[in-house]
Amino acid sequence: MTRGGRTKERDGPERRCIASGESGPADRLIRFVLDPEGRVIPDLAGRLPGRGAWLTADRALVERAEKKNLFSRAFRQQVPRPEGLADLLETLLVRRLVEVIGLARKAGQAVTGFEKTRARLRSGAAGALIEASDAAQDGRRKIAAVAGDVPRIDCLDREELGLAFGRDFAIHAALDAGGFAHRALAEARRLEGLRHGGGDAKHARATAAHDHGRQEEPQRQAPDRTVDERDG
Fold this sequence. Notes:
With 232 residues, this protein is an alpha+beta fold. 41% of the residues lie in helices and 17% in strands.
């Protein structure tokens, strides 16, 4: 689970989920576009041209959109029904998170190992604590004793986390405060929804708000869109 940070989140664009009808920050949703053959493909980086449709990063909502083929309505044309979309998104999001952590390691902004992680946390330089989802509770408690309010990621298992460090496995890691930590936390929030989403967008947002040490903001009345347009 990704837990709250010490810096105030920046205001950003909101989009409306095609499955729940509710709006939220774009970085909590996943954008989809149509490829040249008219098939639905995820645009995880949010950079592909053309009309986009948005889904909350929540497994139950993704499966609802897939089952009811809500993409046809969102794109205003008949599109092939996607299959196995939630599993595909989970795989892609794991890859993206591992890549971000790996880039931080290559830049000298990530450490792994119990003692190195604890030392980085004590130094005050850490911007994110990463713990394998299958880490032992005793180790978690010892790390928590020095972690304070450092944002926490625990949606990767030890083998997945190990990939980021070129190892068979890793259990504890820390990222320095800055861009890599920010990107890792954003990717982890979306992955968490695909791995442990409860199927209720409002509950997911409320949980995220609690985890980030703030109250959920009232629903905005601005005309947020389920689709957007991008120039080619």
